Amino acid sequence: MQAVQKHNIKVALACRTFSISETCYRYGRKLDSENEDIADWLLRLTTARKTWGFGLCFLYLRNIKGFTWNHKRVYRIYRELELNLRIKPRKRLVRERPEPLAVPEHPNRTWSMDFMADQLADGRSFRTLNVIDDFNREGLGIEVDFSLPAERVVRSLNRIIEWRGKPDIIRVDNGPEYISGTLLAWAEKRNITIAHIQPGKPQQNAYIERYNRTVRHEWLGCLIFDTIKEVQDHATRWLCWSGRLPTASNVPE
């Protein structure tokens, strides 16, 4: 530029001397007013449509309004105006470190119990209450019915205790039947500790969870039942066949 203006050198000669193209020499910046128009449109769009990002704004300007602005130019102005969508960061939950799974040292030290759900052939839902001894994962009982409230849970435990003896601890999750006053009062009367696992930590009840998987795999998920009595009878036979019901050899003295 200075060589052409001060020394009256021809543009073509100056461009060849400095190894630049004549197009580059004659390039002039676009009017700032056009950039102001782009900025105005972007501000209006992002104010009216707060969930729109750059992509939707540019498509609206190009396809709806018919502007031929280059997307890089529009994006540069979009960034300069700091119109990027603010993404709300997720709140990281502080999770407690799960307690290790307690391993009992002898039978009748700790029991675990849990519910399972399934359906009869006619679509009616039923539940099963499974109770095991954590020491050797021995199945102590399976109670089946359409509804198993806390009173029914207590009755089932009393029936098992009659032949098995009472445990020191019963490990359960935080279901409504297990946190009810009926079960807690029964446990306090019999001097039994109800140990609730930490919320969201099913691994702390791993013994009964694994037992439930066995029940599901060996018979509950393989057969179709018409009545509750059929389910209960099959559960009882399965416990007898697998050696999990009281016999002369497995009843503690």
Task: Describe what you observe in this structure.
- It is a single chain.
- The N and C termini lie far apart (109 Å).
- A five-stranded mixed beta sheet has the order 3-2-1-4-5, with helices on both faces.
- It has helices at 2-7, 11-18, 22-26, 32-48, 54-64, 71-80, 150-164, 181-189, 206-220, 228-241, and strands at 110-119, 125-133, 138-145, 169-172, 193-196.
- The chain is rod-shaped.
- It has 253 residues and is α/β, with parallel strands linked by helices.
- α8 links the parallel β4 (169-172) and β5 (193-196).
- The model is unreliable at 245-253 (pLDDT under 50).
- InterPro entries: Integrase_cat-core (IPR001584), RNaseH-like_sf (IPR012337), RNaseH_sf (IPR036397), Transpos_IS3 (IPR048020).
- It comes from Pararhizobium capsulatum DSM 1112.
- Residues 103-216 form the Integrase catalytic domain.
- Pfam families: rve.
- This is Transposase.
Cα-atom radius of gyration: 38 Å
How is the largest sheet built, in terms of strand order?
A: 3-2-1-4-5
Number of helices: 10
Percent of residues in helices comes to: 40-55%
Q: Could you say which structural class the secondary elements and strand pairing correspond to?
A: alpha/beta
Strand content: 5-15%
List the helices and strands and how they pair.
Blueprint: H1 2-7, H2 11-18, H3 22-26, H4 32-48, H5 54-64, H6 71-80, E1 110-119, E2 125-133, E3 138-145, H7 150-164, E4 169-172, H8 181-189, E5 193-196, H9 206-220, H10 228-241
Parallel strand pairs: 1-4, 4-5
Antiparallel strand pairs: 1-2, 2-3
